[in-house]
Design brief:
Helices cover 20% and strands 27% of the residues. By secondary structure, it is an alpha+beta fold. The chain folds into two domains: 103 residues, Pseudouridine synthase I, catalytic domain, N-terminal subdomain (Alpha-Beta Plaits); 133 residues, Pseudouridine synthase I, catalytic domain, C-terminal subdomain (Alpha-Beta Plaits, 2-Layer Sandwich). Strand 8 and strand 9 form a beta hairpin. Helix 1 packs across helix 2. It is globular and about 65 Å long.
């Protein structure tokens, strides 16, 4: 008689620069396919993973969460070291946790937090190339933060999603959005129950227009309620976007992903 499978959750971080996004695609280098290939070797059986949220081409992650089921019995250290010794250098498993059968990386999530980092100076940065978005125009982060507060709450975010978005509803609950400056860096931190396709990048693209003085603070509220993507700002580049963390009910006892940049 076949034993019930074990369910394992993993914390994953990756540099998205050389990936065509999270989801496996034939002929393309994707995070999911690289991870599944290595986990299948560690388990000595085919492994399929489910993630908390798919990221696009060029988008990074500090706190992606996945789960998978397996018949293979391995301790946490063996899963972590076995995977990391074989994964490419731009993907790392940061923690491993056996979970109950009712855990689901996507559907059990209560909220997700992204942050977007902007390098705001006249000269571009060589060492931060592809890891941050460079803007040479001076940006007023205080105006950006004030304008962004109109987005907090439950809204129809049609104005900030791509036409290719496949979500059944454009309504999302944005719990908080904060913009702060640290010297030449501006960090935008956004937490919501879920996000639409390109939602964070579209929000940031519009907020940067406010930061440059090209649009007034009230413009963000105006375009939000007009529900028209064509009147909002451009989509910000993927370079500065990171899936920071995913929050789950405490009963699952998953590790917390903390980052001092967000405090």
């Amino acid at each position: 008689m076949k034993k019930p499978p074990y369910k394992i959750a993993l914390g994953i971080e990756y540099l998205g620069t050389r990936f065509s996004g999270w989801q496996s695609q034939t002929g393309l280098r994707c995070v999911q396919s690289e991870l599944e290939k290595v986990l299948s070797k560690v388990a000595d059986e085919p492994i399929a993973v489910v993630c908390a949220g798919r990221t696009d081409t060029g988008v990074h992650a500090h706190g992606q969460v996945v789960h998978f089921e397996t018949q293979a019995l391995r301790d946490e250290r063996s899963w972590l070291l076995g995977a990391n010794t074989q994964l490419p250098k731009d993907i790392s498993v940061t923690w491993v946790k056996p979970v109950d059968s009712d855990f689901h990386a996507r559907f059990s999530a209560q909220s997700r937090t992204y942050f977007y980092q902007i390098y705001n100076r006249l000269a571009r940065s060589a060492v931060n190339e592809s890891r941050a978005t460079w803007v040479y125009h001076p940006l007023n982060e205080k105006l950006m933060h004030e304008a962004a507060q109109a987005l907090v709450g439950e809204h129809d975010f049609t104005s900030f999603r791509t036409s290719a978005c496949q979500a059944n509803s454009p309504v999302r609950t944005l719990q908080s959005i904060k913009l702060v400056r640290r010297d030449e860096w501006i960090f935008c931190t956004v937490t919501a129950n879920a996000f639409l396709h390109h939602m964070v990048r579209n929000l940031v693209g519009s907020l940067m227009m406010v930061g440059k003085g090209e649009r007034p603070i009230a413009w963000i509220d105006e375009i939000l309620h007009k529900r028209d993507r064509t009147i909002a700002g451009p989509t910000a580049p993927p370079d500065g976007l990171y899936l920071h963390s995913v929050e789950y009910p405490s009963k699952f006892m998953l590790p917390n992903n903390e980052n001092n940049l967000l405090k």
